[in-house]
Amino acid sequence: MSLDPSTIGRYKVLGTLGSGAMGTVYLAEDPLLKRGLAIKVVREGTGDAGVLQRFKREAEISARLNHPNAITVFDVGEEPDLGPYLVMEYVEGESLAALLKRGPLSPPDAVDLLLQAAAALEAVHALGIVHRDIKPENFMVTKDGSLKLMDFGIARGDQGRFTTASVFLGTPAYAAPEVLGGAQAIEATDRWAFSLTAYELLTGTLPFPGDSVGAVLYRIAHEPPVFPDTLAPALVEVFQRALDKDPKARFPDLRAFLHALLEALPLEDAVRQAFLAQLITPARATGTLRLERTGKRRPRLHWGWAVGLAVAVLAAWAFLARSAPSRILSIDSRPSGAEVFLDGTSLGRTPLRQVVVKGKADRLRLEKADFLPAEHRIQPEDRDLSLRLQPAPFEVQVISDPPGAEVLLDAEAKGPSPLTLQVPGEGLHVVHLKLDNYQPWSATLERHKPLPDPVRLQKLRAHKAPGPEGKFKKFIKGIFTK
């Protein structure tokens, strides 16, 4: 297509989010629900029943999954002269792959994202579905640090598949050796790719280097992973097992891998224990938790767990035995990472598990940058709280060249430029600039993304006035048309 469409289905196209060899992703708006969307269109997809089938499959999986760490698909359809399209939630952020272009992540940042990714992938596996294309490009990270798994186009479940076992679909660098050998993809195949993604987040590289796709695939299938000398021996041990050629020799599940990884990473003890608590909490689990002890266990961790268990037992006993109106709460926010205050005392950042609320304390306040504070009075029946934070309004400076352009926010006149726009935090908002004899200008507003300073308006071409000969012809034409 040489021109971008103005509409796709019932959706209004606002711009292009990205374009590549496989297709284009558009920013759009649902005119009925007034929400921003992303619409994926496959290049040269017109009339391709396979593309439409994969899109329908992706929509079905999304509907069954309904997980906060997975992209939500709202609609799927087919447009004449455009082909199949997939309508999904618009995530304001960037992919893990884009994040990695700036270098490896710190261990705490990497673990935080990996825990979210594991929660999503566990939920996928709990449905009997194998994703088959786990890689950094298929994880989106929002500006508040939330992670979303996407692209279930080649996922495979118990109800059928799109290809025979001998046909490989996926990304070569993250392909497991059993799949390259012609075996069917299984959950262990996804865990292989997940382990490679974890390794890349921590090191910025992959352990099967090669100058060509063929060289990479050969090393995956036949050679051991290559680790730098600077990688800690404990981490080498973890990734050697995670990337074993034999699927049965790998970690039995994602949490076993993450548990071993947490013990091997250079983390402060308090940070490690906080991540371990997230790892074992039932809120993340989709099945029975199986934690394996690999290698030599550190004495301080052993005692840490023993002391933690004793404290938990004593706290539970005290809670049950005491007549004071104390409660145990789990507190989360959407998005997470909000600072939680109980009657003015900070409890930490969400998500918080097993918080003991003593006595008459009952006022919760959640604060997060770029969001309005949320307050909640704790009720006796509260157990698991999840509070939604409303995006705070933000300001945008509008300066035009030449000045004096009429500024409209979502088609509502706000005055001449220069001016400061007050933009609502919720929803998608568009600013328009209009000035006589100049081309109109518009843009979608984003928090922390200023407009050009100034916005240079393009002058319209002036129409040439007719000369004497032209006026004479117009006069004669008028005579004969009367």
Write structural notes for this entry.
The chain has 482 residues and is of the alpha+beta class. The chain has four domains: 7-89, 2-Layer Sandwich (Phosphorylase Kinase, domain 1); 93-284, Transferase(Phosphotransferase), domain 1, CATH 1.10.510.10; 325-388, no CATH class; 394-456, no CATH class. It is 30% helix and 25% strand. Helix 3 packs antiparallel against helix 8 (254-264), helix 7 (233-242) runs antiparallel to helix 8 (254-264) and helix 8 packs antiparallel against helix 9. The chain is globular.
Q: What is the domain tally? A: 4
CATH superfamily of the largest domain: Transferase(Phosphotransferase) domain 1
Distance between the termini: 48 Å
Strand order of the largest sheet: 1-2-3-4-6-5
Any descriptors?
single chain, 482 residues, alpha+beta, Phosphorylase Kinase, domain 1, Transferase(Phosphotransferase), domain 1, 4 domains, 4-stranded antiparallel sheet, 30% helix, globular
SSE layout:
Blueprint: E1 7-8, E2 11-19, E3 23-30, E4 35-42, H1 49-65, E5 73-79, E6 83-89, E7 93-95, H2 96-100, H3 107-126, E8 139-142, E9 147-149, H4 177-180, H5 187-203, H6 213-222, H7 233-242, H8 254-264, H9 269-280, H10 299-321, E10 327-334, E11 339-342, E12 345-349, E13 352-357, E14 363-367, E15 374-377, E16 384-388, E17 394-398, E18 400-401, E19 406-409, E20 412-416, E21 419-423, E22 430-434, E23 441-444, E24 455-456, H11 468-481
Parallel strand pairs: 10-16, 18-24
Antiparallel strand pairs: 1-2, 2-3, 3-4, 4-6, 5-6, 7-8, 8-9, 10-13, 11-12, 11-14, 14-15, 17-21, 19-20, 19-22, 22-23
Helix pairs in contact: 3-5, 3-8, 3-9, 7-8, 8-9
